[in-house]
Amino acid sequence: MSYADRQLFKNGEPHRIIAGAVHYFRVHPDQWQDRIDRLVALGVNTLDTYVAWNFHQPYKDMAPDFSGWRDLARFITLAGDAGLDVIVRPGPYICAEWDNGGFPSWAISNPEMVLRSSDPLFTAAVGAWFEQLLPVIEPLQACHGGPVVALQIENEYGSYGDDQAYLRWNRQALRDGGMSEMLFTADGGTDYFLDGGSLPDTWATATLGSRGKEADEIWERRRPGEPFFTVEFWNGWFDHWGEDHHTRPALEAAAEAKNVLDVDGSICLYMAHGGTNFGLSAGANHDGVIQPTVTSYDSDAPIAEDGRLTEKFFAMREAFFAAEGRELTEVPDALLRPAPVLPATTVPLTAGTPLLDFVRAAEPVASVKPLSFEQLGLDRGLVHYSAKAVLPQGEGTIKIRGLHDRAYIWVDNVFAGILNDATGADGLKVNGSGVPAQLEILVENQGRINYGPLFGQGKGILDGVLINQRYVFHWEQRAIDLEQPLEELLQRGTAAVTDLGAGFFHGELTVDESADSYVALPGFGKGLIWINGFLLGRYWEIGPQLTLYVPQPLLTTGRNTITVLEFEHGATALELRTEAELGAVGVTYVEDLG
């Protein structure tokens, strides 16, 4: 591709990108083809995807994995075989409401490293990753007959920093890695974001959800000759735990998209199909307190989390066909039919190993002050801290300085309460006897921050624990990697739960034929659920998400195992429901989001 006089060209012919974002890491690989088929039916000509480094290389001592679910080349090839061009956004920073903005924590845990900058410590780490990633993409470029027509340099850098040397380094690293197709930057649709994130000699694109015509005028003034491309048009939004479920009216979103198309701009729907933050992959924001993102990444997208074609799908489709002067065709019947869903049922659950017995079984590491997740070499999961502490006679206060994110606290085997990053320094009132007591603190990482100046912040107890104003020293900590194979986790602890408190719960589901389903956990508090050993994701009674999507490929005909790890309070059964319940709707216009 090329451009001149605000016109984009492909193979020498005038061209407009009409794209939709679909992330391979948020869609079960057995469903990639189905979701791509639905994207084609939406009327787009391009698929857009990020690349999540921590999805391919979660551990420092492993080589990057590009097989199975992580087979990026297969995903790109499927899109190309469906007649779509592909835009790849390799970051390394991707935001995307994805844990740590796509970075493995081990890669950026050096406190001396200046993140997202030209600091040699940082560029060396990214360079090593690009050396593994870019050879996967290189043969799939259009210059070799493949579908990849463009790649993005970094991601919304104008929202974070102003190190132009770093952006130029990133661009050169892509070129040195054989990326010969069009390169571009992406930033918010204002002068401010362009000031920090654009390069004078590289195509600049916009991220926005409204005011497209105003942004086009800025581009005409600031970027003369460049075609206007909204590489992220936010036609929906994501949810945090404890908030309402965000939606955007279909006709309003389509009208705003039409404003971009009416100025001959190119557009990419973010998201066209959002998918799911499986496992512990959901990230978090921070606005005074941690704001963890829910497991669903439905994002009120045109293609729903379960593949359904929504009202927004048809509204956007009509706008796309009209912009291209194409006659609106019928959507194939096979795509209009909903996917098979298991009938509603209740699955009894049996209590297993209590939470404390489970976490106490991990190997201890001793230290004077509490160690962080990063010091323990743990990315996601839990850390159990224990120490002897003298609680004063009568009432005292346990304070945790630098708590990230959520702490469950026991004193002499008695549950004392919960602190989080907002309340940790204020503390928890407890009664003491003036003699040493066993203090246990279980810290949960609820998702690493993926956006803003606190990106890269550590997890665990980053400072220390106080009894009133006095520090507690000499700790043992046990790191629990919840992404280990489930059978290994279940080998820890042998005691059985005698009540419905925190701990493991187990059940079995027998199905005549596998299909999609939606699991709800009424009566449970907060925790994780596995289906046939696959970590489906987090649940939390505060909502808004009430059901977790279970893709058909995760279930098998016959017997299926279900495992729940509850952090607060359990119940005797879970429910399979017949449709998604993502929570009470709070209608949100993008003017309020940007």
UniProtKB/TrEMBL annotation:
Question: What PROSITE patterns is this protein classified in?
Answer: GLYCOSYL_HYDROL_F35
Q: What class of enzyme is it?
A: hydrolase
Q: Which Pfam families does the protein's record reference?
A: BetaGal_ABD_1 (PF21317), BetaGal_gal-bd (PF21467), Glyco_hydro_35 (PF01301)
Give the InterPro entries listed for this entry. Answer: B-gal_1-like (IPR026283), BetaGal1-like_ABD1 (IPR048912), BetaGal_gal-bd (IPR048913), Galactose-bd-like_sf (IPR008979), GH (IPR017853), Gly_Hdrlase_35_cat (IPR031330), Glyco_hydro_35_CS (IPR019801), Glycoside_Hdrlase_35 (IPR001944)
Question: Domain named Glycoside hydrolase 35 catalytic: which ranges?
Answer: 7-319
User: What Enzyme Commission number does this protein have?
Assistant: 3.2.1.23
| Signal peptide span | none
Query: Which residue intervals define the domain Beta-galactosidase galactose-binding in the entry?
Result: 504-560
Thylakoid as UniProt keyword: no
- Assigned keywords, A-Z: Glycosidase, Hydrolase
GO MF entry, a single one? beta-galactosidase activity
Domain Beta-galactosidase 1-like first all-beta, which positions? Answer: 370-479
GO annotation (BP), single: carbohydrate metabolic process
The record's catalysed reaction(s) read: Hydrolysis of terminal non-reducing beta-D-galactose residues in beta-D-galactosides
Q: Which residues form the active site?
A: 156, 232
Q: Which PANTHER family match?
A: BETA-GALACTOSIDASE RELATED (PTHR23421)
**Family per UniProt?**
Belongs to the glycosyl hydrolase 35 family.
Protein name per UniProt: Beta-galactosidase
Natural source organism: Arthrobacter psychrolactophilus
